[in-house]
Write a structure and sequence with these properties.
Elements: E1 6-8, E2 11-15, E3 18-20, E4 23-24, E5 32-34, E6 37-41, E7 44-46, E8 49-53, E9 57-59, E10 64-68, E11 71-73, E12 76-79, E13 83-85, E14 88-92, E15 95-97, E16 100-101, E17 115-117, E18 124-127, E19 130-132, E20 135-136, E21 142-147, E22 152-156, E23 159-161, E24 164-165, E25 178-182, E26 186-190
Parallel strand pairs: 1-5, 2-6, 3-7, 4-8, 5-9, 6-10, 7-11, 8-12, 9-13, 10-14, 11-15, 12-16, 13-17, 14-18, 15-19, 17-21, 18-22, 19-23, 20-24, 21-25, 22-26
Length: 196
């Protein structure tokens, strides 16, 4: 089952919506599974769970999600506690806090407590947003894996702080804030207000 609350295959705009305690017990997107064009504005995504990817939102390859002035908190999935994306993701004026990537039996065993970015078609742009208090085995804030070298991670006037990577001994750095594995064409952090 994909999309505990909803599955979007077209064009969808959500404003002032609360998505709370939804579940995708066998798939991705505890609250939303998006394979189309999605805008979420002024909303709360809280306490949702997915067995696989995207406790709050699973944004598929070739999909496009714009998240504006929205809070993702207390969401849980093995990959991308708050958000999993393989498409284009824009996060503006939003907060990802206290999300976790783990399994039902092993706490903090997954990847990307806030966001997991896997190989796909799009870039991530984060503007005036906060990613804080998220937990995972690697990439407490953001985990990127197997990315093609033309993809971009752009962070503008945002804060990534107090995230946790639970692996204490590993051949690679596990990135409490941001963990990258594979290739990113360009990663930008812009403006004095950007804090990592």
């Amino acid at each position: 089952t994909n999309g505990g609350a909803l599955l979007n295959q077209g064009t969808l705009f959500l404003q002032g919506v609360e998505m709370i305690n939804n579940k995708a017990p066998t798939g991705g997107g505890g609250a939303i599974n998006n394979v189309g064009q999605l805008t979420v504005s002024g909303s709360v995504v809280n306490g949702n769970t997915a067995k696989n990817s995207g406790g709050g939102l699973d944004n598929g390859t070739n999909a496009n999600a714009s998240i504006i002035d929205t809070l993702f908190t207390g969401n849980l999935a093995w990959s991308g506690g708050a958000i999993s994306t393989g498409g284009t993701l824009t996060l503006t004026g939003s907060t990802l806090s206290n999300n976790a990537a783990d399994t039902a039996t092993t706490p903090d065993s997954g990847y990307g407590g806030g966001i997991v970015w896997h190989g796909g078609s799009g870039n991530i742009t984060i503007i005036n947003s906060t990613i804080t208090g998220n937990r995972a085995s690697a990439g407490g804030g953001i985990f990127s894996s197997a990315l093609e070298n033309e993809r971009e991670l752009i962070i503008i006037s945002s804060t990534i702080t107090d995230n946790t990577s639970t692996i204490t001994s590993h051949v690679q750095s596990c990135g409490a804030g941001i963990h990258t594995q594979g290739q990113i064409g360009r990663a930008h952090a812009r403006n004095p207000a950007t804090s990592l």
